[in-house]
């Protein structure tokens, strides 16, 4: 589920029962394909609902993870006032507290941030520093909605400057950058390069991206995802909910068979942990 009405929009604009009924069949479908873990990347103030996630996890058998962090992409329109005023250290303290105390009974298992295109605005840079500090204290992996390759490189540099583990950084939406040299640079730095947005019409480009990384001996730093399928709060009926199965039915058959396990099992475990941290 996503709620793009802004951080000050009134809560309660959706019926959790309706969202549950619409989302569950799509989760059931990927369970049948062998999926066992689902990372829900919807951040605070953009529709994060951990009660709903716990309910769906119980009903589907999937291990569903939620996140801590904040989203500065889309020109900072989802950044609450307190986050504009606080320092990176103060924001990191908030996120560490969510990791320690949970969010409505669900413990965040990763950090989700979002930044705009590079060169990065100072708000974006602050969010990255906060994420690096949080990762250093908690060991959580940071996934970052990233505007372009320049922004990805800048984020890796910020992680390094904060002496945070760059292997805990995931460049989300790397498929949006058409210059493969950025993919190689971030992968060689030791961070994760994630090609998402996979759909039936995007398969050729996504295959090219994965094959490029493999050709550079960087398949071990590559992740794939769909970044699709959600109920949109405020749209009639929640809008169009795209199925999660494209990655299994259209994308994976175009790759070498052994790459499926590398991308969806081995790399995912290396990036996020084979089991939930204690």
Structural commentary:
- The protein has helices spanning 16-32, 50-60, 81-85, 88-101, 122-138, 149-161, 180-189, 203-215, 246-251, 257-272, and strands at residues 37-39, 63-65, 67-68, 110-114, 141-145, 169-172, 192-195, 222-224.
- The chain is α/β, with parallel strands linked by helices and 278 residues long.
- It has a single domain (16-272), classed as Metal-dependent hydrolases (TIM Barrel).
- The strands form two sheets. A six-stranded parallel sheet has the order 3-4-5-6-7-8, with helices on both faces. A two-stranded parallel sheet has the order 1-2.
- Helix 2 links the parallel strand 1 and strand 2 (63-65).
- Helix 1 crosses helix 2, helix 4 packs across helix 5 (122-138) and helix 6 (149-161) runs parallel beside helix 7.
Summarize this structure briefly.
The chain has 278 residues and is an alpha/beta fold. It is 44% helix and 10% strand. The strands form two sheets. Strands 3-4-5-6-7-8 form a six-stranded parallel β-sheet, with helices on both faces. A two-stranded parallel sheet has the order 1-2.
Question: Can you lay out the helices and strands and say which pair or pack?
Answer:
Blueprint: H1 16-32, E1 37-39, H2 50-60, E2 63-65, E3 67-68, H3 81-85, H4 88-101, E4 110-114, H5 122-138, E5 141-145, H6 149-161, E6 169-172, H7 180-189, E7 192-195, H8 203-215, E8 222-224, H9 246-251, H10 257-272
Parallel strand pairs: 1-2, 3-4, 4-5, 5-6, 6-7, 7-8
């Amino acid at each position: 589920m996503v709620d793009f009405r802004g951080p000050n929009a009134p809560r309660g604009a959706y019926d959790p029962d309706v969202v549950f009924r619409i989302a569950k069949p799509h989760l059931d479908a990927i369970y049948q394909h062998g999926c066992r873990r689902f990372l829900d990347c919807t951040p605070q103030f953009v529709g994060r609902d951990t009660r709903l996630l716990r309910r769906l996890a119980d009903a589907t058998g999937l291990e569903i993870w939620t996140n801590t962090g904040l989203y500065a992409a889309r020109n900072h329109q989802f950044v609450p006032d307190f986050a504009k005023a606080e320092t990176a250290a103060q924001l990191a303290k908030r996120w560490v507290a969510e990791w320690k105390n949970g969010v409505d009974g669900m413990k965040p298992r990763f950090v989700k941030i979002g930044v705009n295109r590079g060169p990065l605005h100072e708000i974006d840079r602050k969010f990255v520093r906060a994420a690096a500090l949080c990762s250093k204290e908690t060991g959580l992996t940071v996934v970052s909605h990233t505007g372009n390759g320049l922004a990805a490189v800048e984020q890796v540099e910020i992680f390094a400057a904060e002496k945070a583990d760059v292997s805990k950084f995931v460049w989300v939406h790397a498929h949006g950058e058409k210059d493969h040299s950025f993919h190689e640079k971030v992968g060689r730095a030791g961070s994760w390069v994630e090609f998402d947005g996979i759909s039936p019409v995007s398969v050729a480009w996504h295959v090219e991206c994965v094959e490029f990384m493999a050709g550079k001996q960087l398949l071990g730093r590559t992740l794939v995802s769909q970044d699709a399928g959600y109920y949109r709060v405020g749209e009639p009926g929640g809008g169009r909910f795209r199925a999660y199965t494209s990655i299994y039915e259209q994308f994976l058959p175009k790759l070498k068979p052994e790459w499926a396990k590398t991308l969806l099992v081995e790399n995912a475990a290396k990036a996020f942990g084979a089991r939930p941290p204690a």
